[in-house]
Amino acid sequence: MGEKDLQQRTACDNGEGIKMSAIPFFVNYGILAAFLVLFLVEVGMAFLAALNYEKFKGLIMPYIVPIWEINGTFAVFYVVNLEATYPSLVPAVGTLFVAPLIFSFVLYAVHNGFLAYSEFIEKKEPERIFMITYGISTLIVAFVAVSMLTSSVSAIGISLKTLSITSYTFFLNGFNIMYFIAIFFLILTIVFILFSVKMYSPYLPLVFLVISLIFLFVPTYIYTRYIFNNFLHYYPIFIVVLLIFVVSFLLYYLERYKLVSKALLVLGSYMSVMFYGALEYPYFFNGAINASNATVTGPIATAEDVITIVGGLAVVIFMAVFIYFSYFVKEGKVKKTRAGSPVK
User: What is the CA angle 298-299-303, rounded to 5?
Assistant: First the structure.
């Protein structure tokens, strides 16, 4: 991309602002953001399970089952809305990512199976092995998912003309690796605060967040300059998001209003993903595809909005139930079954 094109694109994005045609984009991105935040929490729990299941079992087991079920709902919700929002793009994108998608589905089946087995197994050692297998398979799925998401931003390692990918550069490119490191440390930040993980220093979550930001900004500047330039224009929003994290951390370290601290952390994470979507809008694949041109219009758009609202309300209810049980189980106000499912 030339410097002139870059300047024109940034100026166009900055000058036009958010149009009505952007609404479907941000509705779909909002669903994706909610799914990603919940999935990152599950990935964090999977990492703790793989790291030392016996040590972290009491922290993660009450949460894994409810969040796993909600993640599945969000995944289906996102895919359905994606198909409804961009009907002309989904077949092509599905063809492009068919190999990593099939690989992810197989591993996700392994992930689901071993998680289910671990709940019903009576012996301690098989349960530990099953949960470690669950943790490792989840981390691999996360890496493949991140690779697909980052490639949809950078377009590295893919060919839109032939709808094919180059396996080596698709997975092992600087943009993908640095983003994966950034997301990994963001996961640690979220998990350490949400589950009050105590390891080494209490300031580890703060260190993790700083590392995450560094590995996020550097590849964005190097590989997707138009996104970085948009960030320079919309930086006040970033400051607001950063302040939410600051308040969350302050409450965490002061050991006051723990539920508020955790809620702000989740909110900050969600807003971070949405802010990134605003920086990327209206392009996919590093400017190769304009989302506005591929968005569905006409009567089907109205039907899509209705379905999205109804589905969104249902998912919000699921989330509210999850948050309620997760918090009160942790606080001992709701009894737990052996498998970790909360009951009154």
Answer: 125
